[in-house]
Structure formats: C-alpha cells, structure tokens
Amino acid sequence: MDNTQNYLNKAVELIMLYGPKLILAIIVLLLGLWIIKLISRVTTKSLERSKVELSLQKFSVNLISALLKILLFISVASMVGIATTSFVAIIGAAGLAVGLALQGSLANFAGGVLILLFKPFKVGDVIEAQGFLGKVDVIRIFNTVLKTFDNKTIIIPNGAISGGSITNYSTEPQRRVDMSFGVGYGDDIKKTKNVLQKLIADDNRILKEPAPLVALSELGDSSVNFVVRVWCSSADYWNIYFDMQEKVKLTFDQEGISIPFPQRDVHMYQTN
Q1: Is residue 271 part of a domain?
Q2: 204 φ, ψ (degrees, to nearest 5)
Q3: How large is the average pLDDT for residues 198-215?
Q4: How many structural domains compose the chain?
Q5: Taking a C-beta distance cutoff of 8 angstroms, is the pair 9, 17 a contact?
C-alpha cells in the first residue's frame, strides 16, 4: 500500500513538474505547425506571382517547410526538458557529410535554381552552351536537355551551364545575317554590287530597317570580296542564309560574274 502511495506521489510530482511544460509544448507545436502552413501558403502564392518554374516552386516550399519543422521540433523538445545539444550536433554532422558526398549534385542544383530564377533561356530557345548548340527541350533542377538540329539529345549539368558562357539565339526577335561573296578581279564591281542589291530587294523576308549593307570589304589574294549584311526575323535566319548562297551562285553564273577559287602556279625546272 505504501509503495502504491509512493508511486502516486511521484506521479503527481512529475505531472506538476512537467504537466505545464508539456501542455505549453503541445500548444507551441500546434501553433507552430499552423504558422508553418501559413508561411508555406504565402510563399507559394508569392512564387506563383513571380512566375517561378513549377518544380522550383514545389521544391522551395517543401525545403522551407522542412527546415521550419526541424527548428520547431527542436524548440518543443527543449521546452519539455530534453537536451537538444546532441540533436543539433547530429544534424550538423549529417548535413556536412551529405554536403561533401553530394558536392557535385549540390552545385548542379544551385545552377538549376539560378537558371530557373534568372531565366537566361527558356524552353524552346536555341542556345549554345558548353560547346553544344541546340533547342532547349527541358529545364530540370539538376540538368538541362538540348535537342540538336540533327535530333541528338544532349544532357548538360546545370552547374556547368550556369558557370559558363551561354549564347542565346532566341532572345531577340531580329538577327543580322552576315555573308561574304568573292568575285574575280576582272569582273565589273558595280555590276556585282547591283546584282547583290537586287537579290536582297527581291527577298520579302529581309527587313528594310535596319537597311541592308552591300560593300566591298577586301581585296584578297585571288578575289574581290563583298560583305553582305541583312536583318531578318530570327526564325528566318538560316533559310535566308542558305537561300542567298544558292541564289548568288545561280545569278552570278547567269550574269557572267566569276567566283574564283584559290589557285597555285607550279613551276618545274629541269636540271642536268
């Protein structure tokens, strides 16, 4: 009977000692979870207004929520009287180990975040990065997928892309097509210039403004070289470039304008 009374007394003491702390901890836990949910909701709406990529939105909200919950549970545990120093040390050691093990992946993740936030390119853009040229097919958290023009799939880590040079051919709505054509020294320079100007004027895809340029640029070793610079819609760039090469060759042949090629004279000497 005495033992039972002693147990009851100790139970009452423990309840009196830890009961208020436990009740307060439960209140703080419930209130904290509600605040974290509210913060997650506000963060989601803010990212949606900023038009951040969907996968980055979900990852960012989940990461913020997880970190806040860890801090909340540590705070609640300390309120009850549980020593949290060891927990913090374990979490810190685990974070360091994971960081060292996933160093490359973390660099790619950081690169993906930068790409999705600052948007140096988007899906559908034609870019050149890390020596590869192609259309952006998918932007993931850890890598970016390019489709080359001969239908190859190139997967580039985002860390390499964000840390290197990127050429985006789709940013501007207009591009300038630079071409060079060589004619013989015996050909009529004015006639050649007029022919090139007429070919440009007959192509409706070439913009009138900025004005096209046809100019004699160089007196080469075996040819007189003309530079042709025209502006067009970015989508018409390659079509205009290839069409002009064919049209110039056909028209030069019709007009009797020669396109010289490198020649070398070889002198043979006979010695006795």
Answers
A1: no
A2: -70, -15
A3: 94
A4: 3
A5: no
Tokens for 127?
């870019």
Identify the domain containing residue 145 by its residue range: 120-168
Asked whether residue 160 falls in the same domain as residue 182, the answer is: no
In a domain, 51, yes or no: yes
Whether residues 202 and 178 share a domain: the answer is yes
pTM, rounded to two decimals: 0.59
Q: How many CB atoms lie within 10 A of CB 61?
A: 18
Which CA distances in Å does 85 have to 78, 98, 137, 266?
A: 9, 20, 47, 88
Q: Are residues 164 and 185 in the same domain?
A: no
Residue predicted with more confidence, 266 or 139: 139
> H or E element: which one contains 56?
helix 54-80
Q: At what angle do helices 54-80 and 2-49 cross, to 10 degrees?
A: 160
Helices (H) and strands (E) in the chain, counts: 7, 8
Give the mean pLDDT of 27-31.
83
| Cα gap 157→104, rounded to integer Å | 9
Q: Give yes or no: residues 60 and 124 share one domain.
A: no
Question: What CATH number corresponds to the domain at position 219?
Answer: 3.30.70.100
> Residue range 149-158: average pLDDT?
91
**Secondary-structure breakdown of the chain: helix, strand, coil percentages, each rounded to the nearest 5:** 55, 20, 25
Tokens of 251: 């028209």
Predicted confidence band of residue 19 (pLDDT cuts 50, 70, 90): low
- Cα torsion at 104, 110, 112, 116 (round to 10°)? 180
Angle at which helix 54-80 crosses helix 85-101, to 10 degrees, equals 150
CB 247 within 8 A of CB 239: no
Using DSSP bridges, classify how beta strands 213-219 and 153-157 pair: parallel, antiparallel or unpaired. unpaired
